[in-house]
Amino acid sequence: MLNLVLFGPPGAGKGTQAEFLAKTFELNHVSTGDLLRTEIAAKTALGIEAKRKIDKGELVPDEIVVGMIKIKLEKNKDVNGFIFDGFPRTLEQAMALDKLLDENETPVTGMLRLEVEKQEVVIRLLNRGKISGRSDDQDRSIIENRITVYCQKTLPIIEYYKLQGKHFEVNGMGSVEEIAGRLKEVVEKIG
Ligand code: AMP
Fold first, then answer.
1. H or E segment to which residue 30 belongs
2. pLDDT of res. 105
3. Alpha carbon 25 to chain centroid distance?
4. What pLDDT sits at residue 5?
């Protein structure tokens, strides 16, 4: 199985590139952001709790997102692999993912880290907000908070994957096609 973690700051283009990689390598695309937005749209208790955090640019509690991933893995046993988009976002989530994958004896193959300059990220998010209507993409202070949370809670994951020899850096600046090409090259090498 090919299990990929697509990593990068909010606005790095993870969603678009994860879709491309899922199609190219026939992987199951798992986006915790999308799963949470589905819960919010359905107005479930989980969705209502998640919305409170998302609207402030904060992270949703680990047990909620890990629980959603667990269900996804259980429901999709006969797949070529997974591409995780926006997950893990904390060290606890990274460790929980390893534990869940260990149970299926299919470890993370690699973590692909999209490197994008902060200024570019803010521009991309504000532009996306105009098109998608996502409220967390329209407010500069929420965006700033998401970036701060990313630096404090999510960046430490890099070291976690580096120590396992599973960290692969990819330049996330340029056109969608250019970035997709770079990602494909790395996946072909590690897959
Ligand atoms: P995204 O669509 O990945 O940008 O996620 C949108 C929002 O959902 C984030 O700003 C978080 O509030 C929440 N979220 C998504 N994935 C996670 C995760 N793995 N852990 C905690 N919160 C998450």
1. strand 28-31
2. 82
3. 17
4. 98
